[in-house]
Amino acid sequence: MSLILYGAPLSPFVRKADILLREKGVEFELESVNIMPMPDWFKEISPARKIPVLRDTEIGKEGALGTIPDSSAICVYLEQKFPRPSFYPSDPYEHARAVWLEEDCDSELAAAVGLGIFRPIQFARFQGKEPDVETAQKTYQEKLPRLLDYLETQIGESGHLAGETASIADVSLACQLFQLELVAGPTDAGRWPATTALAQRMHARVSFKPCMDICKKIVSQAPLDLRS
Fold it and tell me: Which of 42, 48, 78, 158 has most Cβ atoms within 10 angstroms of its Cβ?
């Protein structure tokens, strides 16, 4: 086994890399890293102080050599090293759309879901405190709808964000929406039918199950209703 993925399943970005490895049928080791505080050895291979980091031991077994930080860079590496099945459309325009929509989910959507909803609820619980429902509810009602409205318009007749089959954009969207589902339940299928259906189809894939099962054990509390 030459690949090691450093991180934690509760991170949607670790989850994204984990899922792509499983979709491509690649053997790998998931090594848990507690980043609070971050160990010194990990700082050497993660200059942005974030997870995940992938190590290819065929290239380097110690230090920074052989490591790739950032989930998007990891996924590009995996696509190049293990091209089948492909998660980046071959058509240049659709390929670029997939990369853009992945970035949109990893940045704009992730900020709203992660910083604005997941952390105020679940991080408070981890610390034995009451969830900050006010902050989470404000984000859910005021920031999240605009982001989901946009993504809803980007899903084509194929049922995917880019191209005719599942792409890295779909994986990223589904990872972020699962993070939301853990603490606030699934998205409103009445308002965002295509987005909700896409997330449900992706979550049903075998590749999602290992991380999802672990996360459901970590986040054992029932989701909160933030709609009203």
Answer: 78
pTM above 0.70, yes or no: yes
CATH fold of 3-81, please? Glutaredoxin (3.40.30)
Instruction: Walk along the chain (228 residues) in steps of 10 and give the mean pLDDT of each run.
Output: 92 98 97 85 92 97 95 98 97 98 98 98 94 97 98 97 97 98 97 98 98 96 92
Q: Where are the domains of the chain?
A: 3-81, 92-218
* Whole-angstrom distance, CA of residue 149 vs CA of residue 141: 12
CB 180 within 8 A of CB 118: yes
- Tokens 């974030």 sit at which residue? 50
DSSP code of 135? H
| Contact (Cβ atoms closer than 8 angstroms) between residue 71 and residue 106 | yes
Supply 29's token pair: 């080791």
Class of CATH domain 92-218: mainly alpha
- How would you list the strands of the sheet with 67-69, edge to edge? 29-32, 3-7, 53-56, 67-69
| 87 class by beta-carbon count within 10 Å (0-12 exposed, 13-18 middle, 19+ buried) | buried
Q: Are 123 and 179 in contact (CB under 8 A)?
A: no
